Amino acid sequence: MDSRIWESVDHLVAWLDEHSTQSPQEERLLRLLKLSEEVGEVGAAVIGATGQNPRKGVTHTWEDVQHELCDVVFSALVALRTLTPDAARVFAERLAYVEQRSAASRDTTGRAAAEDAEDAPEAEGTEQAVAAPKAR
């Protein structure tokens, strides 16, 4: 991840800390709860972009949804940085883990599909493999 992002996160955390009226424990919990608020705003934007609420109609755009998703990401990074000063390392390690798990899953899925194709009867063989029922 771009180091500029982590610099920005550090500045945001320092600014929030400077203006906080809460204890460090309360501040940490509130920053974690902020994620729920932001996810709710994503949901509201999706409902608004699709016009799901007939009383309100279309109130948002898909660009609004994109912005709300960014707010979720920002809030998550701030919360992570609040939990640990080594947020960049924790994030990078977790990303590597997810990439590895995803690659392993793709490899397994690809091999399984190839093995299934090898085991499947060929089109010509399928006709021969289906025998007429035996007469009694």
Overview features:
136 residues, mainly alpha, flat
Shape field: flat
Classify the beta-strand content into a percent band. Answer: under 5%
What percentage of residues falls in helices of 4 or more residues? over 70%
Count helical runs: 5
The low-pLDDT segments are 122-136
How is this structure best summarized?
The protein has 136 residues and is mainly alpha-helical.
Description of the molecule:
The chain is flat and about 45 Å long. Helix 2 packs antiparallel against helix 3. It is built from five helices and no strands. The chain has 136 residues and is an all-alpha fold. The C terminus is likely disordered.
Describe the secondary structure blueprint for this structure:
Layout: H1 3-19, H2 24-50, H3 62-83, H4 87-119, H5 123-129
Helix pairs in contact: 1-3, 2-3
